Amino acid sequence: MQRRPGQALTPHRRPPVVEAGVLTTLLVVGVWAQELLDLFVLGGQLDYYGIEPRQPGTFWHIFSAPFLHAGLPHLIANTVPLAVLAFMSALRSVGRFLAATFLIVLIGGTLVWLFGRSSIHLGASELIFGYLAYLLGVGWWERTPAAIGVALVALFLYGGILWGVLPTNPVVSWEAHLFGFLGGVVAALLLHGRRRGPGKQVP
């Protein structure tokens, strides 16, 4: 291919599906690697870095808790919905996906730390509920055929988990479910809430 004089070179970019796939793979491999390390090398000590509500000096655990699990059954149960919803969330934009993940972790974790029961809260379900809410929120605020279609697919696949925001099981952190969902709604509002006006273009 020849370039005309003065024509700028356009950097090659991988297709969005590839970028989303790589990011999702890194996320899933990361949570599996740390859980196997915790189980077989550290004897479960990483679980103490879950969220302990209102315990001074442990607030920063909000950034570690969503990536920790209480054993392999817990991790196995979360792996598929985490992978599917993370992949769907990252398809639009890797940058926005990373920003949404940060907001879900920050908002959801902070609310669990402030209002959760006195226990150790950990697990990727905070992210799962957050990503589901994020996809639904993007569909609501953008209202484009693509965004609405993705939201409907996510709702069809995992809408049944929304019952998890209710305190129906004493050993399940419904607080992480509820506040992770709220974090996803806020992330969608902040990242996609701008409406198009006449003559305006949004990225």
From TrEMBL:
InterPro entries referenced in this protein's UniProt entry, alphabetically: Peptidase_S54_rhomboid_dom, Rhomboid-like_sf
Keywords: Hydrolase, Membrane, Protease, Transmembrane, Transmembrane helix
Listed transmembrane segments: 20-42, 62-85, 97-116, 122-141, 148-166, 172-191
Subcellular location: Membrane
UniProt topology in membrane: Multi-pass membrane protein
GO CC, any one term: membrane
Leader sequence segment: none
Molecular function terms from GO: serine-type endopeptidase activity
Residue intervals of the Peptidase S54 rhomboid domain: 57-192
Gene Ontology annotations of biological process type: proteolysis
Pfam family, one: Rhomboid
PANTHER family: RHOMBOID PROTEIN 2, RHOMBOID-RELATED PROTEIN
Family the UniProt entry places it in: Belongs to the peptidase S54 family.
Protein's UniProt name: Rhomboid family intramembrane serine protease
Source organism: Deinococcus cavernae
Upper lineage: Bacteria, Thermotogati, Deinococcota, Deinococci, Deinococcales
